[in-house]
């Protein structure tokens, strides 16, 4: 997905994606298994993050006023994965396959690490010129802005609050209409902009709350086809390529994907790129528009 000029919509396109011709098997699967939750594939990977941790420690020592985290690096790695593996940016809705024009990665921000604290939805749109530095600064800036308030700061959060305040006899038919509009791809932008259900990847940094990576379901509503959870960074003994054993920094990553957008072989190779980025963190300094050179 290169950053493109505003494209002209063709017959069959949606505002959030252009229609693409799917192979016969995937086309038939879209009709036989129309619900995204019926087509989930879950992959769990244990990634050696030792080189990445060392890289971040050096980076943060040089710039103590500005901390770059493992989550920032993981988000940058996800953006590169989608950039180099375009099928990961596809989705099926209304029995048809589409491909987005841009990469979008969403996550939830807890306003305070306390029971009952409100959450806010955030969407990041990486561009070709972005690197770890620019993505990290955008995430930190957005999170700080969100946490200034104990309550909703507008956007999709405010819209959800308004919907939630409607009486049940109004909310039920309203949701039915929204789902119908979603099926045909004609939901107004006000309902989809900032909604994680309409992003390329929905990710959750469970390591920030000392929780391991877990399986997280996809949703039938919207267009999101990839959910990635990041667990807690921890020490673990692993077998090295030469057969020796060593204590390394390890992080678990869980990914739930819609198997209709690509096959398992494509998924596995895509996740290998994230593993490669963790082992070669210098790639995080390259703009996303430049290839990683990784040989699949």
User: What top-tier CATH class fits best?
Assistant: Alpha Beta
Second rung of CATH, namely the architecture: 2-Layer Sandwich
Distance between the termini: 18 Å
Number of helices: 8
Radius of gyration: 20 Å
Main sheet summary: 7 strands, mixed
Order of helices and strands: EHEHHEEEEHHHHEEEEH
- Which spans have pLDDT < 50 for at least 5 consecutive residues? none
The CATH homology group name: Chloramphenicol acetyltransferase-like domain
**Annotation, overall tally of beta strands:** 10
Number of domains: 1
User: Remind me, CATH topology?
Assistant: Chloramphenicol Acetyltransferase
Shape category: globular
The percent range for helix content is 25-40%
Strand content: 15-25%
Multimeric state: single chain
Characteristics:
296 residues; 7-stranded mixed β-sheet; 21% strand; globular
């Amino acid at each position: 997905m290169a950053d493109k000029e505003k494209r002209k919509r063709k017959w069959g396109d949606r505002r959030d994606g252009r229609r693409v011709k799917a192979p016969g098997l995937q086309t038939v699967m879209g009709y036989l298994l129309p619900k995204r939750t019926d087509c989930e594939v879950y992959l769990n990977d244990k990634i050696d993050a030792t080189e990445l941790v060392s890289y971040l420690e050096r980076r943060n020592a040089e710039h103590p006023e500005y901390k770059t985290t493992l989550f920032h690096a993981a988000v940058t790695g996800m953006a590169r994965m989608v950039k180099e593996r375009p099928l990961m940016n596809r989705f099926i809705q209304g029995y048809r396959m589409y491909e987005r024009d841009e990469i979008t990665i969403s996550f939830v921000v807890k306003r305070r690490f306390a029971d009952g604290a409100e959450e806010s939805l955030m969407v990041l749109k990486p561009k070709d010129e972005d690197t770890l530095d620019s993505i990290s600064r955008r995430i930190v800036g957005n999170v700080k802005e969100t946490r200034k308030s104990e309550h909703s700061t507008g956007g999709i959060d405010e819209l959800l609050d308004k919907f939630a305040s409607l009486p049940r006899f109004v909310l039920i038919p309203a949701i039915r209409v929204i789902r119908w509009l979603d099926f045909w791809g004609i939901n107004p932008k006000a309902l989809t902009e900032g909604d994680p259900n309409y992003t390329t990847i929905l990710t959750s940094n469970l390591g920030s709350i000392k929780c391991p990576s877990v399986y997280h379901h996809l949703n039938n509503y919207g267009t999101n086809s990839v959910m990635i959870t990041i667990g807690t960074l921890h020490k673990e003994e692993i077998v090295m390529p030469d057969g020796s054993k060593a204590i390394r920094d390890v992080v678990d990553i869980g990914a739930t994907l819609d198997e209709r957008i690509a096959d398992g072989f494509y998924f596995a190779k895509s996740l290998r790129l994230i593993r490669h980025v963790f082992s070669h963190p210098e790639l995080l300094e390259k703009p996303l528009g430049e290839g990683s050179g990784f040989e699949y």
